[in-house]
Design brief:
mainly alpha; 5 helices
Length: 159
């Protein structure tokens, strides 16, 4: 592996790690704090709908990073594929990163924003609840696939 490709691989792994960290931080830290503002402030200042709007904006901004990661995965893993440096587990993880990343950024987030745009009542429907739960499951699959992709690429880089 030449020097420049090794540096590119390190940058790629850092990007995947940053994406994973940002996603975990949003889900583990930002969401619980945002949806429990009354505990931190002492009184209910925001409604659950308003808290949801704040959280949606956080995830909308996170989706920009998801798009960058998706493009990076396509380019990096596509190059490795063309060089015949591929294995089944990496290909499966790549597929799941691409599929779930695109679903998150281009299906779930726009759908949730559209439903929120219809008002509080729309966010209490079964359709919204199912869409929201689907986005949570989707992002968990995305995160697991990212971990697998990172580990596989680290293993190859350390050979």
């Amino acid at each position: 592996m030449n020097k420049y490709f090794r540096m590119l691989t390190m940058a790629y792994l850092i990007l995947l790690g940053a994406m994973l960290g940002a996603g975990l931080y949003a889900g583990i830290v930002v969401a619980p704090v945002t949806f429990n503002t009354d505990q931190w402030i002492g009184t209910e200042v925001l409604t659950q709908f308003q808290e949801g709007q704040i959280m949606t904006e956080n995830f909308l901004r996170l989706s920009y990073l998801v798009n960058v990661v998706v493009v990076s995965v396509i380019l990096y893993e596509g190059y490795k594929y063309k060089k015949f440096e591929r294995d089944t587990l990496t290909q499966i993880a790549t597929f799941f990163v691409l599929a779930t990343g695109l679903l998150f950024a281009h299906y779930y987030i726009p759908d949730i924003i559209a439903m929120q745009g219809q008002g509080v009542e729309a966010t209490q429907t079964e359709a919204f609840i199912n869409t929201h739960k689907g986005s949570e499951i989707n992002f968990k699959v995305f995160s697991i696939a990212l971990i697998v992709l990172m580990v596989q690429n680290m293993r190859k880089a350390c050979k």
